[in-house]
Amino acid sequence: MNLVEKILARASGRPKVDPGEIVIAKVDRLIMHDLSGYLTADVFDRQVGRPIPDPERVVMVFDHHFSPPTERQATVLASNRAWARRHGITLYDCGSGNLHHVAVRHGHIRPGMIVVGSDSHTPVHGALGTLAVALGNDSHAGTVLPYGKAWFRVPETTRIELDGTTRPGVTPRDVALWLVGRIGEGEMNYRALEFAGPYVRALPFWERWLFPLVSVDLGAKCGYIEPDEVTEAFVRALPGGPADLLERSDGDEAASVLRFDVGEVRPQVACPPTVGNVVPIEEVAGRPVQWAELGGHGGGRLEDIRAATAVLAGRHIHPDVRFNIVPSSRAVFAQAAGDGCVSALHEAGATWFPPSTGSNQAVNMGALAADESMISTHARNFPGRNGSSEARMYLASAESVAASALAGQISPAQEKS
Amino acid sequence: MTAPRTFAQKAIERASGETGLEPGRIVDAYPDLYMSHTASWRCIRTLEKMGVDTLYDVDRVAMVMDHISPAMSTKTAADHALCRDFARRMGVSKFFDVNAGIAHIVLMENGLVRPGEFIIGTDSHSTIYGALGAFGTGVGFSEITAAWVTGKLWVKVPESVRIAIDGDLSPGTYAKDVMLKLIGDLGADGLTYCSAEFGGAYTEALSVSERMTFCNLAMEMGAKNAFVAPDETTLRYLDEAGADRGDLTVLLPDEDAAYARSVRMDGSSLAPQIAVPHTVDNVLPVDEVAGTHLDQVFIGSCANAKYDDLVIAAEVLAGHRVADGVRLIVTPASAQIMARASSAGVLTTLIDAGAMITNPGCGACAGNGGAMADGEATLSTANRNFQGRMGSYESSIYLSSPATAAASAIRGVITDPRELLEAAR
Amino acid sequence: MIFEGRCWKFGDNIPTDRLVKSEYVFEPMEVMAKHVLEDLNPDFPVQVRPGDIVVAGRHFGQSSGRAIATKALKATGIGCVVADTFARTFFRNCFEVGLPALEISGVSELVEDGHRLRVDVGGGLLTDLTTGQKGRGAAADPFLVEMLEAGGLIKLAARRTDLFESGGRPFSQ
To answer: Mean pLDDT over residues A254-263, rounded?
Structure first.
């Protein structure tokens, strides 16, 4: 069995599982944010109303709001706090950071776990060798909270092997975006994706993170990276809990294998209206942008902030651009402040925002007018998420976002000389 | 020989070109600057309806997108876009976008407010410009629109009240405490339609930032404008801000000018003060409300989120953690203040203590976050605590100095900052 | 489980953000339902009738995993939703909230907006009554059919506590 099958077999108490069958498996972690958590709690209280036997399995992070702008939203958060307190659920309040980053950095995610969440990017935790799957609120309210279980269809697995050396200026984010364009949005529907190959193996943890992140764009149920010494070292440095949950596959061949040479990849941009509309950045270079943002599930990492600092230190962004920086966690913000990135990027004209998901769905920020465009490290660019449905969202690497903020138009990062 | 005159008389005479103006006279004045904030779109829409596309003097137009920044709704995003487009089309050089900070602070930091000038703004706390010896007053959007087109505004010459503040404050008390005490003593209507002229040894020794706190809060007693006499401190600030000193007209009140009233206050025995719900003039010394439970602490607003305010908060918070269950929101008043706080390490101290630093701007004071649910309480360094101003009608807002706010965030209840400051010494 | 109604046809890769825009996330379900898919067809939320059928192309319902997108679509009164393929969270949520969903490869080529359709969800069969064309998909898994019959996952879990209290496979083979 491969990693996903082994985890599902263990969690459903069976010696073996086969792709296609439906099993009911024990869930190790449920992660929720302020919106999905509210919806789940609402369904749970009104329609289920049983005790939660294992509240320590549940983590809630307020990340869509960094501070509620209306009484209605304040009431949503107050209700979440009261609900978490009532059930003994761990809560990270506004300003802690992005749900997924907070869950990892505080040690709530361990290799070999089954991690579920309503946030559709929950599969990102496959970067630690977990089976991480997005489920809907009714699964959480109806079975995960009261019984600690959920139903799963065992997925077929496709291994995506990446080999080769990237050209100068091409980042892992470009490779991940390129994969979505190359394979096609929704083309891996219902499947598990294993990201493998020498290119992936050589990446540090927070760069690996970007691959399971795009599983959902490909339609996959989950994505993972087989745990290795990089995973192990990363997990050992996290707070709390044992680090010996590392589960590995038996080496069985995946149902299908896709092989790519990353040497082909040029810097990429996902263009509106969908995440699969990916083109080399040259093809859209010159289109004006009024907004740029580092943030979201895949951005706002220290790596992104440092990359933007390298592009922008000592320079100033274009006068028509507002450049938002949203650290992925409080720890990242503190580190960026300590090592001078906060000052350097502020001097370059950027504006810092509290650790959160930033402009994701424009809860606290990021509503765009009809004629406006934003280039960001976010994971989504669908119309209707950020203000006017006519506004345009482009997704790219931190390097390209910073270069575009500098130029006032979509612009590839200049190769460092 | 003309009769001795107050600052307000001189400022309005200068702006109107009239002489011998006595309180109560109504004249047309030509403001030097018209400030409008995020809701400038109202003025632009009115101009469109009127079919007007030429302005009296575009160089006197200042627009700052501070109240809802950045946009959280399609509507606000469109409003901002309209303002940007208007500024570009008309050549408004004093346009500051959502990333700049609070209008008042941004304009002063950029040297756009000078002594003697007559400045109107679509924000009631425009009295703050008196910190630099200017005549600042709040007006409505229709008045700003009219000024854009005609260049003038009718104004009634106010009576003046002289407020002399003397004595050295004891550690842990600040300009904010002085003002809260004054507002409590004089009442929310204590200076209605008056020009508040601050003087006395204590006032003279204040920094421009502290004078801003004074003049900002004068509004909460109903003042039309406020004033601190420009001096060396003022000139130094103007130079740092890059203000043009070429044709400076420092206006000082005449020695024996006629005042409607004189108020004296000695700050030497003052304790930290708290404005308790739900009016700004409902003021008590901190010990009378110490221990009151808090859910949120907000260090922000044009009253108290300037650089020195953040430094004071950081001094109190250094080495401490915000209490569990309390949300500490720090919103620097401007991008410049954020830069100073960042490079001086103040930001790191605040983050390490558990504060959430937001983007510069009005923040929670203008509904950009900070809303409360039923039954919650916030201690804020802002200037208003009216019922329902921060979310639920069933929530409470207390007002204090940044030091009291920081100390209270550590304890989770309203706390006398002197307890923590003494412990630190 | 047979539905007959007007076909409302939509394209490929439609995200949940088109079903429930960000600005309606905090609104009550009735409000969300009044705006479902309005950017793509403003007539839909206004003119949709109980029992009508939504047909979409590939990867329908991608983006957010929140069940409100399926709940809002169900609240418009439609009988069922048919697509070439669904985004998996959306497909899952359909059954969990009791909205029948059927995958028929090529269905978006087969039918036209405004046609009358008959859909047999249990049998995996769609008939375009306007043209007489038929499309066939895989019959739904018995577990999912039972979920639909129960009225959604929460009702199923309450009825079949054995499934979740004991764990393992839902149906002994």
So the answer is: 94
**How many angstroms separate the CA of residue C28 from the nearest CA in chain A?**
11
Low-confidence ranges of chain B (pLDDT < 70): 1, 425
- Residue A386 near residue A362 (C-beta atoms within 8 A): yes
Looking up tokens 């958590």, which residue turns up? A37
H or E stretch covering A256:
strand A256-261
For chain B, report the end-to-end CA distance as a whole number of angstroms: 57
Separation of alpha carbons B369 and A351, rounded Å: 17
d(CA B424, CA B174): 18
Report whether A144 contacts A20 (CB < 8 A).
no
Residue A308 in tokens:
């933007």
Specify the pLDDT at position C154.
95
Run of H or E including A335: helix A330-338
| Confidence at residue A415, expressed as pLDDT on a 0 to 100 scale | 56
The shares of helix, strand and coil residues in chain B, as percent rounded to the nearest 5, are 35, 20, 45
For B293-326, b where at least 16 C-beta lie within 10 A, e where not — what string? ebbbbbbbbbbbbbbbbbebbbbbbeebebbeeb
How far away is chain B from the Cα of A177, in angstroms, using its nearest Cα?
A: 28
Which of C58, C92, C146 to mutate: most A Cβ within 10 Å? C92
- A364 in B contact zone (CB under 8 Å): yes
Q: Which of A120, A362, A385 sits opposite C89 (nearest CB)?
A: A120
**Whether residue A73 has pLDDT greater than 60:** yes
Residue type, B280: V
Predicted confidence at residue A202, as pLDDT, reads 98
The torsion angles phi and psi of B56, rounded to 5 degrees, stand at -60, -50
> Which residues make beta-bridge pairs with A204?
none
CB contact under 8 A, B372 and A71: yes
pLDDT of A243: 61
Are A362 and B71 inside 8 Å of each other by CB? yes
Instruction: State the pLDDT confidence band at A246, using cuts at 50, 70 and 90.
Output: low
Whether A338 and A363 have beta carbons less than 8 Å apart is answered as: no
pLDDT of amino acid A241: 67
Query: What average pLDDT does the segment A180-185 reach?
Result: 96
A360: how many CB neighbours lie within 10 A of its CB?
28
Q: Answer whether C22 sits within 8 Å of A386, measured CB to CB.
A: yes
| Residue at A103: amino acid letter | A
Q: How far is residue A414's CA from residue A178's CA, in Å, rounded to a whole number? A: 19
- Contact call for residues B8 and B133 (beta carbons, < 8 A): no
Which tens digits make up the pLDDT trace of A78-100? 999 999 999 999 999 999 999 99
Asked if the Cβ–Cβ distance from A39 to C65 is below 8 Å, we say: no
Can you read off the two tokens belonging to residue B113?
A: 């407010």
Closest CA to C77 of C98, C50, C95: C50
The C-alpha atoms of residue C13 and residue C87 are separated, in whole angstroms, by: 8
Question: In what helix (H) or strand (E) does residue B176 lie, and over which residues does it extend?
Answer: helix B175-186
A47 CB within 8 Å of a chain C CB: yes
User: Searching chain B, which residue's CA lies closest to the CA of residue A333?
Assistant: B351
Residue B425 CB partners (closer than 8 Å, separation 6+): none
- Which is nearest to B227 in space by CA: B289, B181, B290, B163? B163
Interface of A with B in 320-359 (CB under 8 A): 322, 324, 330, 333-334, 337-338, 342-343, 346-347, 349, 351-355
Report the pLDDT averaged over residues C81-85.
97
Contact A195, A158 (CB under 8 A): no
